[in-house]
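Narrative of accomplishments. A recurring question from our advisory board has been how the design workflow behaves on a single, concrete structure rather than in aggregate. To address it, we present the structure tokens for one chain from the evaluation set, followed by the sequence designed for it. No filtering or post-editing was applied between the two.
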């Protein structure tokens, strides 16, 4: 496979990340290469050493053309790759990771990607803040113990996050005070970047991510045989008790009927005959009417 084929395949992978990447916690720990969620990770790792520059250029070209709301998937993907590369570089668990220059270069460029999901003049991109906060927390864990240059990059990401949080809080405060928020359309990119199709695309991504996460909850634990045997025994006991209770009730009803019948006496008196005749007359008239 030459560099052109690698670039074309990587472009398709990046465009389909909304369907194959659904959580910040990666599924790369699964060893099976047949898992479609692992495909973006495996492709990069297989071609990184030979085509790193092509992959990097494709990634930045694609993300530059995207709306900030859609860029979040690529940044999540990028962070997962960095985490894997750091874990692979750490040959001795009792020492700090000895990362390669290539991996270090990836780390130093992360702040650029982080800024792209939270552009300063794009109000709509503030909806990325919850995931951006999770990304920053994850970044701190991944870069723990790395050199000063990488720590400076982490600090830069932290500064970006704090600035955007401050903008959001100011907007909330202004809305609580005045009941509305005024947006400067001359400096804001919102009206240019966000349309109906973008919103629909974001909704589709959220639905897909939610569906994939639900699939992980459909696995049920196998029922223990002892539980089944205990349940069957309890069911049999309950059924036996129910049958016995029903028999006793029927016997009691029959005895009560016999007592009432015995006390009723024999024959029909004159008053009862008159009442029966009247009922018969009323019934006949109602049918004829």
């Amino acid at each position: 496979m030459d560099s052109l084929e690698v670039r074309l395949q990587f472009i398709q992978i990046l465009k389909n990340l909304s369907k194959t990447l659904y959580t910040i916690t990666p599924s790369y720990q699964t060893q099976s290469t047949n898992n479609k969620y692992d495909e973006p990770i495996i492709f990069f790792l297989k071609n990184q050493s030979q085509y790193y520059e092509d992959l990097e250029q494709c990634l930045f070209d694609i993300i530059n053309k995207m709306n900030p709301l859609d860029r979040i998937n690529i940044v999540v993907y990028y962070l997962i790759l960095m985490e894997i590369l750091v874990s692979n570089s750490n040959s001795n668990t009792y020492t700090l990771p000895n990362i390669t220059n290539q991996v270090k270069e990836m780390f130093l460029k992360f702040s650029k990607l982080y800024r792209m999901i939270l552009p300063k003049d794009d109000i709509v991109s503030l909806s990325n803040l919850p995931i951006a906060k999770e990304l920053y927390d994850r970044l701190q864990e991944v870069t723990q113990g790395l050199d000063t240059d990488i720590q400076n990059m982490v600090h830069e990401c932290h500064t970006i996050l704090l600035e955007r949080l401050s903008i959001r809080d100011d907007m909330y405060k202004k809305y609580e005070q005045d009941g509305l928020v005024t947006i400067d359309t001359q400096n804001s990119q919102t009206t240019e970047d966000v349309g109906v199709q973008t919103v629909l695309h974001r909704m589709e991504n959220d639905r897909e991510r939610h569906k994939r996460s639900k699939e992980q909850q459909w696995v049920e634990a196998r029922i223990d045989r002892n539980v089944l045997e205990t349940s069957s025994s309890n069911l049999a006991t309950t059924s036996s008790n129910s049958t016995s209770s029903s028999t006793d009730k029927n016997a009691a009803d029959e005895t009560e009927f016999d007592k009432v019948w015995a006390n009723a006496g024999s024959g029909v008196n004159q008053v009862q005959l008159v009442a029966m005749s009247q009922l018969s007359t009323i019934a006949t008239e109602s049918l004829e009417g």
